[in-house]
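Our consortium's second objective concerns turning raw sequence data into structural hypotheses that experimental partners can test. To show how far this objective has progressed, the report includes one record in full. It was chosen at random from the queue rather than selected for favorable results. The single chain below, 68 residues long, was entered without modification.
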Amino acid sequence: FEMLTGERPFYDRRLTNVLNAHIESPVPPLPESAAAFEPLLDRLLAKDRDQRYTNVDQLLVALDEIDP
């Protein structure tokens, strides 16, 4: 997320608020210039581990399919 936007997905001065945001809040949308990466990022940052890539090979295939 930070590589695509230059910002962290969640920021607060209190660490507990950042941790809670990671657990409870949806990932902020990417800017239009990075929209092609949104499905990939959603899966990488999925709250439910069963929705994430299970290995790096799956991730590499998904990266190859992106047409920025």
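The partners drew two points from this record. The chain has four helices and no strands. Residues 2 and 8 are 5 Å apart (CA to CA). Both points have been shared with the crystallography group to help prioritize constructs.
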